[in-house]
Amino acid sequence: MKNKNLLHDKKLSKAQVQEILRKQGKLIPELMEAFCERRPDGSIFEQDLVYELNDGNFLVVRDPSIKREGGKGDIWKREFMNRFASWSKEVKEDYAQGRSSSTEHWRYYSKYKNELIDNVELLIQELSHRLNIDILDLDKSYDSLGLVSSKVEKLGRDVARPELYDNLVAYVGEVIKSRVQGQWKFDSVFKVPYVGNENEHTHLNPVNIVWGELGSLEPMNLRKATVAEIRNVSHLHKIVKQNKS
């Protein structure tokens, strides 16, 4: 299956890469960290090379020291390359700072933390104001999640992450509540809010949904992620019931 972010179907051979570089290509060191694998001590294990081409797209060449694959390459679309480089930097920083899980990541950026549940309505009002969405359009429907996602994309996830993390968690949680006849609950072990209902096994996680979408390489799609969370948990409940019967 063709990768939509590449300009070709098959990986470029070493000869094809060299032919391109004979005519064009400017080495871009600041983008190469995204294609760098390091050992625990920080030393480089593998380092791919990144060249900007005349049309603005990027040629990524596998580390020449690697057997067989070394020297082969791919041409990445400019827009995706910029997103990928930014995403890779954030992932590495999060890992280094101990916030690689959804819970750790949310608690780092959260303003309300343990008090989020008590401030859900306020957070949704703030979300309406910040994203310029009529409060009546935040009707806890799946369609409203599509609207929120598009607004966050326009604002920028780099802005939404520090400013609207709690707001997004609160709204996604409210949508989930309306779908499963649920209630907000707080996990005292992991110190994270979630949505449950009368089924003791229901544990729907809006924090995980928002974390995944804020950190995705693809455009934000809170609707798709929320539907998947509800379906997955509902399927697990059926298994639990069958095992108990």
Can you tell me about this structure?
Helices cover 50% and strands 13% of the residues. With 245 residues, it is α+β, with helices and mostly antiparallel strands. It folds into two domains: 14-94, no CATH class; 98-244, Four Helix Bundle (Hemerythrin (Met), subunit A) (Up-down Bundle), CATH 1.20.120.1090. A hairpin with a 5-residue loop joins β4 and β5. α6 packs antiparallel against α7 (157-180) and α6 packs across α9.
Topology of this protein?
Blueprint: H1 14-23, E1 26-27, H2 29-32, E2 36-38, E3 44-47, E4 49-52, E5 58-61, E6 73-76, H3 78-96, H4 102-109, H5 120-130, H6 142-155, H7 157-180, E7 183-187, E8 192-196, H8 206-214, H9 222-244
Antiparallel strand pairs: 1-4, 2-3, 4-5, 5-6, 7-8
Helix pairs in contact: 4-8, 5-7, 6-7, 6-9, 7-8, 8-9
At a glance:
The chain is 50% helix and 13% strand. The chain is of the alpha+beta class.
